[in-house]
Amino acid sequence: MQQILERSVVYVKGVGPKRAELFEKVGVSTVYDLLQYCPRDYIDLSAPCEIKNAQGEDPLVIRARVVKKMPPARIRKGLTVCKAVFTDDTDDITVTLYNQEYLFASLKEGEDYILYGKVAGNMVRREMNSPMVFSAASPDLILPVYPLTEGLSQNIIRKAVRGALDLVLGEVEDIMPQYVRDSCRMCSLACAWENIHFPKSLYGAHEARRRLIFDELLIHSLAIAYQRQNEDSDSNYIMQAQPLEEFTSALPFTLTKTQLRSLNDCTVAMRGAHRMNRLIQGDVGCGKTVVAAGAAWFAYKNGYQSCVMAPTEILAAQHYKTFKSLLEPLGVRVALLTGSLTPKNKRVLKEQIAAGEFDVIVGTHALFSESTHFSDLALVITDEQHRFGVEQRAALSAKGRNPHRLVMSATPIPRTLALILYGDLDISVINELPAGRKPISTYAVTGKMRERAFGFVKKQLEMGRQGYVVCPMIDESESDLNDVTSYSQKLAQGAFADYKVGLLHGRMSAAEKEEVMNGFKRGEIDLLVATTVVEVGVDVPNAAVMVIENADRFGLSQLHQLRGRVGRGEWESFCILITDNTSPECVQRMKIISRTSDGFKIAEEDLKLRGPGDFFGTHQHGLPAFKLADLTRDMQLLQTAQQMSKSIIESDPQLKRADHRIMRELTQRLMQRGAEMT
Ligand code: ADP
Ligand code: MG
């Protein structure tokens, strides 16, 4: 980056140490930061409204000439009121200025001005209090509006930005080479900076913003493409083909076409010269686990170990059972490594793992962090990877000698986002449910219908089914806990007195959770009151009905995940959403979830309605924080940036070309900040 951009803002005319401190508060410390400090909005002074039509709550632009200035009135010490009447020949308006004698004095009768402010008064007598006043001869007809902090006014920022622009325009090199700009139809950086701050039209401002957002997305995408290109992707575990029927014929069911294809994707990849880095994406209940088990079996047949990481102990235990039942008959030795083991057992188990006495090791991430060693780990399987922090992912990848990676995700994110979350990986999609699955009938009702809903649940229990009641726990606090506990007691003593009601929440110890979950699986519990700990992966085919309380507090994708806990067996299944929130947005969301059973569509809607942060329903979603880009709005740009960065890296893997120099510097800087990178 050019030196001048790295200078402190103090270097800019009109910015002293005091102002520099204020700028620091809004995150601006260098000339570059100042240029990148984008307006949050613009006022378009070029399209005035006629005074006769001027009304309403929003500030308006009026172009009018001064008809008459009243003498200033000193109301009291420190308050001077000046009034002037303006006209635009459609009507008059009285403008009042408080303590602005200097501005008032500069107004000339008969001359045109542009006023910006809220119009008050009535149809007979229109008024404007303390509007912004500009000379109609002023060339800046589009006015930027910056986010402020105390002590920094719009004017101060505008002047400082002007100063910075005058300093750098003509001096700085564009970070993006001409050919990139041409192919993505982007304006030059100089043009973008001029137009984001002092646009001649709103279109100009829009194009400028587009370019600056693109810069941010391009550098980010370049970093991902660069890593992919330059990391060690040679496979240390080139595997041999195996008779897959040995695995498939031992299954209690036939794999669906897309399951088979996904499994095939994995085995082909593991036989190749490059390390596999693959995401299996598929809606809840589509059967991803079996595919992962097939991949682990394939590694086993080649004489290697696999590990399976789950985000929670419950899921680890469940995966353990699944993998064990699928693979043990085939001779695979499966171990479960969890935090609830006694220290001694843990040590013994770890020794056995290191000695190669197990082929598949299932556990939670905590277990793979420190002292776990493998004898020959060739495949790392993770479940719902976005629930792991970036560091944990890195730690796991460091195990073994660059093992193959397989990620299972039921969050059907678009590929553009997957790239950002997981880096550049290949994706297999399972887009069909196993034969015989019935869709889950979903209904949204208000609290008034609760009794009827419970009546319906009871009928299901009478028929031998089991059910869930899910309550959101906002922060897993004591009071939340009390709410859920007393709620479940109420159910156990009231509506469901004849049934066995269990309670499951995140504050319980792993052993307690396990006990409840197992009780539910064995059918000893009829109705399970639970917080979102049941959200991912828990598999009880006999559960056919779910009630979700305060359904409006969940994201759509999260609701979809939750409801995926039912409808996993042969029974017709139901999900009842209870919410008293009748806002249009909530009604719309409930409609979507009731009518759509396709997780991909739901995710798209969710993304539109709530943005990617909320979309994952967790702060640990792993998405980087962009300064200008907004992934809900700028998906298209992200896609362009990803395609561009791919072709840049293909043509110049190390970014060594002269015209790529600044891009390389910025990319490296981003990678050093590291935390955002996978
Ligand atoms: P998810 O994709 O949500 O992880 P699972 O792998 O947990 O789905 O599978 C859901 C249920 O469907 C499990 O009980 C599993 O045994 C069953 N299943 C998986 N594949 C098939 C299939 N091809 N035919 C019938 N049942 C299947
Ligand atoms: Mg699963």
Strand-helix topology:
Blueprint lengths: L2 H4 L10 H9 L5 H6 L4 E4 L15 E10 L3 E4 L2 E9 L4 E7 L2 H6 L5 E6 L1 E3 L4 E4 L2 E4 L6 E4 L8 H15 L9 H7 L4 H9 L4 H29 L14 H4 L8 H15 L5 E6 L5 H14 L3 E6 L2 H15 L6 E4 L5 H12 L5 E5 H5 L7 E7 L6 H8 L6 E6 L5 H8 L3 E5 L9 E6 L4 H13 L3 E5 L7 H16 L7 E4 L5 H12 L5 E4 L12 E6 L7 H8 L9 E6 L5 H12 L3 H17 L19 H17 L9 H13 L5
The chain binds adenosine-5'-diphosphate (ADP) and magnesium ion.
Structure annotation, total helices: 24
Largest sheet properties: 8 strands, mixed
Number of strands: 23
Q: Which outline best applies? A: globular
Helix content: 40-55%
Structural class: alpha/beta
Overall pLDDT, averaged?
86
Cα-to-Cα separation, first versus last residue: 25 Å
Rg over C-alpha atoms, rounded to the nearest angstrom: 31 Å
Uncertain segments are 615-621
Kindly estimate the percentage of residues that lie in beta strands according to DSSP.
15-25%
Name every ligand kind in the structure.
adenosine-5'-diphosphate, magnesium ion
Entry keywords:
binds magnesium ion, about 675 residues, eight-stranded mixed sheet, about 20% strand, binds adenosine-5'-diphosphate, about 40% helix, alpha/beta, seven-stranded parallel sheet, 23 strands
Commentary on this structure:
The chain is an alpha/beta fold. Strands 2, 3, 4, 5, 6, 7, 8 and 9 form an 8-stranded mixed sheet that branches. Helix 7 packs across helix 8. The protein is globular. The protein starts with a helix and ends in a 5-residue tail after the last helix. Bound molecules: adenosine-5'-diphosphate and magnesium ion. The site of magnesium ion (MG) has 3 residues, from helix 11.
